[in-house]
């Protein structure tokens, strides 16, 4: 079995992401996956999953080869429940990422990468209740990357995400989710894969 590079996209689809933001996310994901399909290294190793979260969290694409993945149209509704998104990420990683087995002399998957997109802080749930549990989850990742678009306001949200990601990853503040910001995200994702 070829070693996979699992990449998890965790996307805020609460109602504040409606309109132009969710359109930019839908178009940006399609562009990103099209670009990855042109990368021979990505074609060989990259498997992706998409988890969306609002009041609840759902894995709408289980871990799938980049060759086969089809991006569904994502819609915005409900509240922002970061806690549920993290619990769904934990469930997905534990069920899908193959661990190395020294007894069988088999190498498992590469350490996964996570990309989170959100435009604000939590309005439902409380991720602080599960922080120790999530810290253990994040140790399984090679990197955690969050893109927070606040439209120039509510910059306290980026501090909230930073306190969640902490030592495990990087948080990037965007003015908004639009075509220009997705060019930045696509470039970042491409560079993340190049180092593998």
Characterize the biggest β-sheet: 6 strands, mixed
Whole-Å distance between the termini? 17 Å
**Secondary structure tally: strands:** 6
Q: Let me know the CATH homologous superfamily.
A: von Willebrand factor, type A domain
Query: Which architecture per CATH?
Result: 3-Layer(aba) Sandwich
How are the strands of the largest sheet arranged?
A: 3-2-1-4-5-6
Q: Spans of 5+ residues with little confidence (pLDDT < 50)? A: none
Q: What is the SS-derived class?
A: alpha/beta
Q: What's the average pLDDT?
A: 88
Order of helices and strands: EHHEEHEHEHEH
Can you describe this structure in just a few lines?
With 196 residues, the chain is an alpha/beta fold. It is built from six helices and six strands. It starts with a strand and ends with a helix.
Question: Describe it for me?
Answer:
With 196 residues, the chain is an alpha/beta fold. It has a single domain (11-94, 116-194), classed as von Willebrand factor, type A domain (Rossmann fold, 3-Layer(aba) Sandwich), CATH 3.40.50.410. Helices cover 37% and strands 22% of the residues. It contains 6 helices and 6 strands; from the N terminus they run E-H-H-E-E-H-E-H-E-H-E-H. It has helices at 20-36, 40-45, 82-96, 131-138, 156-165, 179-194; strands spanning 5-12, 46-53, 57-65, 113-118, 143-149, 169-174. It has a 6-stranded mixed beta sheet with strand order 3-2-1-4-5-6, with helices on both faces. Helix 1 runs parallel beside helix 6 (179-194). The longest helix is centred in the N-terminal third of the chain and has 17 residues, at 20-36. The two termini are 17 Å apart.
């Amino acid at each position: 079995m070829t070693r996979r590079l699992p990449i998890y996209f965790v996307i805020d689809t609460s109602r504040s992401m409606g309109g132009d933001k969710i359109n930019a996310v839908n178009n940006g994901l399609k562009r990103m996956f099209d670009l990855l399909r042109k990368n021979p290294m990505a074609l060989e190793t990259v498997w992706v999953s998409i988890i969306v979260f609002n009041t609840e969290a759902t894995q709408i694409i289980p871990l799938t080869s980049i060759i086969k993945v089809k991006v569904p149209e994502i819609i915005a509704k409900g509240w922002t429940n970061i806690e549920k998104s993290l619990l769904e990420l934990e469930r997905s990683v534990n069920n899908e990422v193959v661990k190395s087995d020294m007894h069988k002399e088999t190498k498992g998957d590469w350490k996964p990468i996570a990309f989170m997109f959100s435009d604000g802080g939590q309005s439902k749930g409380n991720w602080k209740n599960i922080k120790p549990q999530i810290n253990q989850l994040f140790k399984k990742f090679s990197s955690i990357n969050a893109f927070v678009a606040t439209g120039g306001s509510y910059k306290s949200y980026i501090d909230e995400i930073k306190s969640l990601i902490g030592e495990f990853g990087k948080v990037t503040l965007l003015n908004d989710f639009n075509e220009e910001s997705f060019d930045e995200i696509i470039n970042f994702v491409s560079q993340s894969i190049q180092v593998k």
